[in-house]
Structure formats: C-alpha cells, structure tokens
Amino acid sequence: MKLDVRDIYKNLDQYMNQEVVVSGWIRNHRKQKEFGFIDFSDGTYFKNIQVVYDNKLEDFDEIQKLRVGCAIEVRAEVISSPAKGQEFELSLKKLTLIGDCPEDYPIQPKRHTREFLREQAYLRPRTNLFGAIFRVRSITAMAIHEYFQKNNYVYVHTPLITTADCEGSDQMFKITTLDFNNLPKKDGKTDMSKDLFGKTAYITGTGQLHGESFAMAYKKIYTFGPTFRTEKSNTKTHANEFWMIEPEIAFCNLEQLMDIEEDMLKFIVSYVLEKCPLEIDFFDQFVEKGLKEKLVKLVNSHFTRITHHDVIDILKKANMKWEFEPNYDSDIAKEHEKYITEYFNGPVFITNWPKDIKAWYMKLNEDNETVAAVDLEVPGAGELMGGSQREEDYDKLMNRIETMHIDKSTVDWFCNLRKFGSCYHSGFGMGFERLLIYLTGVDNIRDVIPFPRTPGNCDY
Amino acid sequence: MKLDVRDIYKNLDQYMNQEVVVSGWIRNHRKQKEFGFIDFSDGTYFKNIQVVYDNKLEDFDEIQKLRVGCAIEVRAEVISSPAKGQEFELSLKKLTLIGDCPEDYPIQPKRHTREFLREQAYLRPRTNLFGAIFRVRSITAMAIHEYFQKNNYVYVHTPLITTADCEGSDQMFKITTLDFNNLPKKDGKTDMSKDLFGKTAYITGTGQLHGESFAMAYKKIYTFGPTFRTEKSNTKTHANEFWMIEPEIAFCNLEQLMDIEEDMLKFIVSYVLEKCPLEIDFFDQFVEKGLKEKLVKLVNSHFTRITHHDVIDILKKANMKWEFEPNYDSDIAKEHEKYITEYFNGPVFITNWPKDIKAWYMKLNEDNETVAAVDLEVPGAGELMGGSQREEDYDKLMNRIETMHIDKSTVDWFCNLRKFGSCYHSGFGMGFERLLIYLTGVDNIRDVIPFPRTPGNCDY
Fold first, then answer.
1. How far apart are CA A308 and CA A358, in angstroms?
2. pLDDT over threshold 90, residue B84
3. Where are the alpha helices (H) located in B243-348, listed in sequence order?
4. How many Cα atoms occupy the beta-carbon half-sphere of A393 within 13 Å?
5. How many CA atoms are closer than 13 Å to the CA of A411, on its beta-carbon side?
6. Which residues contact A6 (CB under 8 A, 6 or more apart)?
7. C-alpha count within 13 angstroms, C-beta hemisphere, residue B120
C-alpha cells in the first residue's frame, strides 16, 4: 500500500507489522558490515523514518552504495524499533532506486549555515530547518483563511496591477511591455500611452483602497496576497516582495478593530501550536529558546491598550539612556517598542498617533492633532500589525489629500466611497513574514520566504 | 445586540421576537402614506431583510426621505412576516442615519447592464449579481485551500518577481524602478544592471518551476496566487492579471494526476453547492439556466480518459462541418472541445499531445512524438485544467530546451532538480477565473475579477 510517511506516523496502530510502500529521499545513510540504516523522508512529516536492512537482501551491496539525496521507493514492514526515542522503523523488503544523486550534492547531513542555504534556495526546503519553516508558513496561511472564513469575511483578490497612488508611487515598481531599448517618444518624453494599459502602471504596495470598496458592500472582507516595495534596504526585515493580510470592516471603530486583531492573533497562534507541535519544539530547541512559552503566553495574555501620548510619558519617565529621545510628535524607535512590551509584560496596542507621521486616509481625531491609528507591538518582534479607523468624511479626506500631496485623480473613486453611504470603518495590515518571524523565531525575512527578493538579489 | 444579517437568517429561532441591532445599507425603499418598507442589506448574506416602519415613529417623515444607498443603523424587533416567501421581517424601533447618499447614486434598484457596472467596479459588489459572484469567489478560494490542506499539501508562495524564462519572456511584464525619461545607458543600450535587482526582472506567468523545487522536498505542494500575461487579447476569457492554482506532486504519474484533478474538482463543486445554495440558485435562474443541474451532474459523473490521437479519430469520423479541420499534429479548437464533451456527455481528460504544441518541460513519451500532457475539458466551459508529467531526465530536458530555444542560463537550477534525486512527478494548472466562469455561468472574465485588467483598461 502506497503511503505518505505522515500516514504511518498518524495511524501507527493500523500499519504496525504491515507491509507498506513509501517513496522519498535518503537524508542520511549509515553503513555497517552486515546492516544499513537509511534516514528516509518524503517531506510529508517533520520526522524521518529509519529504514533498516541487512545483508540477507540480494542487492545488499548496491543498496550500500546509495548516496544522500537519492530518490527511492521502499517496500518494507513496519516494526517496533529497539532504538531509543523511536516508536517504529521500517524493515526493508525491496528498494528501488528512482533517481540517483551525485557525491557533490550540496545538502549533506551536517550543519549548513543559513547564508549558504540561501544560495541554494531551490534545495533548502529539503533541510530540517527550512522544511519546518515552510510547512509552518503553509499552516499559518491556512489559519488566517480559517479565521476569516469562519467569521464570514469575504476574501477579496484586490488587483496587483494598479494606477492608483496608494502609498506614494515612488515606492512602487513600474511595469511595462515596452522595449527598454526602443521606447516610443512624444514631446521628448517616453510616451506611456503606447504601453499595454495606455498609461504608467505599477504593481501595488497595498490592497487597502480596493479592499475598502468591498467592505462597503460586504461589511467584512480580507485580502491575502503578495505586495511589493522598491525600498533599497538590506536589513533583516525588508524584502521587495512579501505577503500581506489586510482586513477591512465596515461599522467598526478603533476599539472593535483591536478586539478583532487580538482575537485573530490568538487564533492563529493556537492553530499553529496545535498543528505544528514538532516544528515549534524544533524551533524552540534550535532557533529561539523559550519560543513555545512565548507563544503559549501570548494566547493567554491580556493585550494592553494605551495611547501614543501615554507611551511617550512612560518612556520619558523611564530610567533609561535612549539612543533616540522619545517625543510626543514622533514615531517610536525599536528600543522603545522593546521597553514598552517589557513594561507591560505582553502585547501592547498603541493608539492615537500624531497625524503627521501616519497615512493620509486615517481618521482625524477630534483633537485635530492625532489620528485614530493603532499599532500592535508584541514582545520580541516589535510592530506586528498596523491599522486605523479610516477617514469617512469626504471633506476632511480631501483636506488630508491636499496636505499630503496625494494625486487625487488616481484615487477619486476611493474618495467617492465617502459620498455613497459612507460609514465609520476600520482595517489593519499584517505583514505575513513578520508574523512568521514571530512564530518561528527565525530572525531574517530571507529565511521565511521561499525565494526572497532583495536589492540585487533575484536569482531563481 | 449588534448582529450580522447572516446571523439572524442562520439562527432565526433564537432571535425571533427579540430586539436586534444591525448596520448596513438601504437597497430599496418603498413608501406608503402610513408605512414604509426598507430592503436592508449589510452584505453578509445573499438575502436582504425587510425593515417595516409606520407613522407612529416620531421621525417617520425623516425616515421616509432616506434614499437608496444610505448607511443606517437599525434597532428593531424580529417578527414573523405576513409577506409571501419571507420568513421574518424587522419591525423598526429606532433608525440612525450613518452616511447619506445622493440622488445620483449610480446603483439604483433596477436592472443595470453588466457593461455599465464594469465601469462602476468599485460599487458593483453592492448589486445582487456581483455580490453573489464575489462571495462565490471567496468561498471557492477556501474550497481549494481546504482540499489541499486536508490532503496535506504544502501551500507554497512562489515568487511573482522572477528572472527565469518560464514561458517565454515576451509574454511577461518587465518591472523596473528606473525612470523611463532618464534611463541609464551603456554601449548605446539601456543598462539594466542599474535596476534594483541588477538585471531585467519580470512578473511571472507561472509558479510551476519554483513549485517543482518544493515538490522535490514536500512531495505534495500547491500554489495559489496572481499571475500575469501581456497578451493584447480583448476576448471574454483573457485578462492580463488572473489567479492560478498550480499543484505539483512527486512520485506521481499522469494517471494518478488525473485522479487528483478529478477528486479536487468534485470536492470544490460540492463545497460551493453546499456553502452557496442561494447564490447558485440565483445564477441558475438569472444567468445560466440549468447551472445547478450541470454542477450536480459533474459531481456524480465519470470523467472519460482518452488520448489526443483517439479524439482526432472521433472528430474526423463525426458527421460535422468543422471550421477547423481536426489534425493529429495540432491543438483542438473550441468547436472540437464542445463536440467531444457532448460526445462523452461529461468531462473528458485528453492525454498524450503532440510534443510540438506543448511546453518544453513536459515528459516525452516513448513514441518520441507525444508528451505526457493532459487537458481537462468540461461541458460548457472547455479547457479547465492543463497538466503533465514532467520531464525528469536531465539529458532529455536539455534536448527540449535547445529545440524550444529556452534561455537555459535562467532555468539552470530547475534543470539541476533532475540531478539531485530526480523522480517521476506531475502537476497541473487551473485558472481560477475559468473555474469561476464554470461555477457561476457568468461568461466574461471581467465579471468574475474584482478589478479586471485588460489591454487599455487599468482604472481603479
């Protein structure tokens, strides 16, 4: 019976002492004179299976020659194992070589640096670490879908190609079908009217604007898709392509938005703890000591809610030498984020930020100085989500658009939403990779994206 | 108690004769001298709720002035309804106007053409038709995730930005951060080494190549994300941005691939029939007569499996005047697809296609003339999925790459997968919008994409 390794682990009682057939790859191969031990993986489960064979097999000598990385089919009996910490093993009946692997195969059963494995992006999911990371990535994505679908949100595929000036067009990639070596000209400039869409188009940095229009129809929507930024930053937290989740909820104020953010995050963390216990244990042991405790604690914690003003008060009173002096008019620095989550010993929602450091579409508070924005800071990862109540008043929005120099002609339709049955509404964005960094303890965004794109790096 | 309209419909027993609060929009408003009737929707359910009020209310006159499109909060009692075909209605206690709506609001309670509504893309989800379409889109997306996750596939976010020549770079959008009016030059040509990634980069038309590398680690993976083509076609089935699902399975041959395709499609259709009964009934009544019967039939049908050669035999023997003569060396035309699904009275897998009309990575059959490709044709929608066993032999793949003039340097790593534990493996692609056209009966791709992008059209 052809099985996945996962099937055997999950239904061991059923398969014990049965003959099974599995196909996969050799992760390690230890040879003795009369015996051999193959660490076998088909990638469906975090754990390998040990395949044991002895020299009673006709092709014992050929089997002993098999190298790490070979693809094989194994017919074997599931038997209880004498080895420590291992419930069962496979006693080999017949091995078929499906695909050979040369000696210079880069993924050997030894410790490789993450930097080396980044250069082998197409092979690295075959390692324990990256195998675990990208399985958690998949399960976490499903947790997000399950959360929103069970709460009857509509999943909206907002467009990636856009002509709207959402967050400043200088931060967006332009796309074109024109020939860079033969651009059409008009009045000495490149004639973009000759391009496929008849004008300059971009790939977007947010689905929020489009998401809002759907929230005005469905009340509760979310997006989950790739997003692009042209930033030339080479840091651990920046990539030019990443995935974002952007829920948007009509008839929802800032307090209710925080309720949703907290509920969602606890759901996701619980889901991953339940579905990926082996992976989380592995990260806890080899990547971030205390990871599991951190995650369990989050699920059971109370999320503090405090204004930006009061956070600055606390920071100013703190007996600390700050690199960046806390300021009522400014953003807070990483050192402040760290202090404040430690101060409250848990996640902190910081609300009501100075309007000048936040986006043009956020709702102006009655003080005319702050906007109804909220950032969620979590211990050990800093800002995990950023959201706000949106400016639902047409005239106030127009004022902000002028002050912030947004190209109104490209967001006309978005502003019109404020004319046709406008309502108080709120939404937030969560960077998927930032969430994964928090969940796995892996600290570099390049290691939680299958094929990361950063300045100068677009291989594979 | 603040509720969604959906909550009341789903738990009517619980809320009957209770006071509830709902927020949403006026879809229609009929006024009589002493009474008024508001068709109220909050978008969480296909059906509206009727809100009735009479002149005993203090603000009766103001309420009567409320126009279609207004956002309102309604406090009311759930009561059984005397009206036909309606289980309950809301007896108004208090109405609060949240957002007004002018007389010239484009979405009025009358029949609008789909062409008109396409020009109101940001408002059209507020109509019955598009409200239903995009809810089905959301539920169908979830069906796909549930199918693959319950079968332990790993969801892989393959990169959109790529430098690999997957399907011919002339079909891909180039992306750039360079200034079109001030391009850096070197030897008379545009110097792409000055761009963000140091070379020409594209947004991709497929995740398959990257997906394969993950299938060689996890055995079973799927992708589900946006995809781009530069085609200048203005047809009902072409868009420049659309979503694709691309599963890839190691140790899987063409027969097993067809098993998976059939199982997946039946799961999705059953799921949508179960979760969206009202929407499907609506499409059945107003969009495609017989839609529901078609879908139920598919779930219970046997999918025929037949070679391309035998299909051509049948077409040649048919007593038909073809516009395009069937040919053993060629693709089949739409008229042939239609004939063959009617001939077999159900979905048909067509296998073993002439190698010259299929992609370079497909497995060459032993006849050296055909490849192990399979297209699934479904009644009424034509080709729904296209897949193949992949060429797993390094030398044969190299031959194909040369013959088909693929830029080898960009897919080196992909070819290397054939060196390091290669195995027979297969995968397919399904255009998400094509599936939605099949599920809803809506025949234009522009009407199943929230904000469609087609040549010359990139508004919103």
1. 12
2. no
3. 254-275, 277-286, 291-299, 308-317, 334-343
4. 8
5. 26
6. A44, A45, B152
7. 20
Alpha-carbon dihedral sign for residues A416, A417, A422, A427:
negative
**B453: chain A residues, CB-CB within 8 Å:** 159, 161, 197
Q: How far apart are CA B377 and CA B254, in angstroms?
A: 16
Evaluate whether ipTM surpasses 0.85: yes
> Cβ contacts (< 8 Å) between A409 and chain B: which residues?
none
Of all residues in chain B, what percent carry a pLDDT higher than 90? 90
Distance CA A210, CA B37 (A): 32
Helix (H, G, I), strand (E, B) or coil at A145: helix
Is a pLDDT exceeding 90 seen at residue A81?
no
pTM higher than 0.80: yes
Q: What share of chain B is helix, strand, coil (3-state, %, to 5)?
A: 35, 25, 40
Please give, rounded to a whole number of angstroms, the shortest distance from the CA of A186 to a CA of chain B. 11
Instruction: Check residue A46 and report its DSSP letter.
Output: S
Q: Is B441 left (phi over 0), alpha (psi -120 to 50) or beta?
A: left
Q: How many CA atoms lie within 13 A of A365 on its CB side?
A: 17
Q: Which of chain B's residues have a Cβ under 8 Å away from the Cβ of A4?
A: 152, 219-220
Query: Residue B382: phi, psi to the nearest 5?
Result: 70, -145
What residues form DSSP beta bridges with B374? B351, B387
Model confidence pLDDT, tens digit, residues B310-344: 999 999 999 999 999 999 999 999 999 999 999 99
Q: What is the DSSP secondary-structure string of A102-134? A: -TT-S--SSPPPHHHHHTTTTTGGGSHHHHHHH
What is the pLDDT at residue B169? 61
- A:B CB pairs within 8 Å: 323
Residue pLDDT, tens place only, A258-267: 999 999 999 9
Identify whether the C-beta of residue B127 lies closer than 8 Å to the C-beta of residue B112: yes
Asked if residue B92 lies in contact with residue B22, where contact means CB atoms within 8 angstroms, the answer is no
Mean pLDDT for chain A overall: 95
d(CA B23, CA B25): 7
